Amino acid sequence: MSFKIWLFVAFVLFGFLRAEAAEKPNVLILFTDDQGTLDANCYGSTDLQTPNIDRLAKQGIRFTQAYAHALCCPSRAGLMTGRHPQRSGVNNWTQGDRNGSDKRNTNMAAEELTIAEILKAEGYDTALFGKWHLGAKQGHGPLEQGFDRFFGHYAGFIDNYRHCFLHGNGYHDLQDDGKEIFRKDEYYPDLLVGQVLKYLEHPREKPFLMMVSFNLPHYPEQPTSKFADAYSDLPMPRQSYARVVSSVDDHIGQIIAKLESISERDDTIIIFMSDNGHSTEEGSRISTENHISGYPKGHYYSAHGGGGNTGKWIGHKGNFFEGGIRVPAIISFPKALPTTEVRDQTVTVMDWLPTVLELADISKPDHELDGRSMLPVIQDSTAPSAHPVLHFQWSNKWAVREGHWKLIGETGRKTAANPNPAARLTLHNLSDERPETKDYASEQPELVKQLQRLHEHWSEEVMQK
To answer: Model-level pTM greater than 0.70?
Structure first.
């Protein structure tokens, strides 16, 4: 019997022993895609209409220093496992096409224990609606990682009407419990939320864990009809981006309204977060004739160069400046947590798993978690952050932050002639009036060495061998 199977059986048995415990809360995770650092009205973007996210902030705690990751895959791995994504082998783009056209072989390690597996063992119904992006290989999808229900897509994104991944030759990717389905010309976010509402309407005796992993505001920027002509006073690319931000906010509102109508809102922990900063991708067009989507060669589907708002911060999706990794995040559970509060302490996407376990009175797994429960900082605005040091890595690029200093590195590619290439290093100060715009590496060589050592020790510990 493999270690993972043994551990899962142990959790199931333990769950039965705890059956007489107090009733568990539902858990709803709302994960948006490429929603930037300040891109909600409650974060200061007053040119956006986000009434449902704003209302959620009033009903809970809004974090101003919440960190996901610079890209989709590692953020999802951190959320699912409560661990640095490198522990599960997610340090590069994951496989997206189960049918084989995608030649990538990276998938989140099957032996990783996810939040879905832990809560399922405690008697929860578990469901994922939307984007998976942790690998499509048989044995590595959401149904194999603890979710009882899956409607959505494996890949990094799909067109909202053709339901195809569009890069390269593309492939169709709309899944219903692991089976490919075809619903051409139906607007995907509406299909997604329709399945969520149907799931909520179904009578159940057990609590649920439901993750709704939206594909918006990620490109292609195709808004719901309600916002198709909105924001005509805004310049591009903010106009296009604002339309899809409001679209995802509207779909969030539909889900919360359903919770209220079935009298489950009071018993549901709601978590809201984005997976990374806003995209500034510009040049993506259909590159082949006879593309599987049916779009003609040259069809544009990118992010118009980026319409996100980072305020004083710089950066965007794909880099380790604050605008790439600092994201909006909210938790709402008025039954047990404060409301209309703001917390400035550092929290991370990995913290949601231990926070949920503590709120639901569920024991943490025996293996190492990198996330820490947020409850101390939720309950006390003066409590210290559990993360005095932050680490990020993606392929050969990495960052380490301690205090207000951040070292960003890029390790050169190894070759036969140069087996130990030097890293390109830049040092930045988050407390500057214009944060991260100046490189202090030449002025602070000892600090560079200190932070580089922190990264090296971390890398030795977490990188999957």
So the answer is: yes
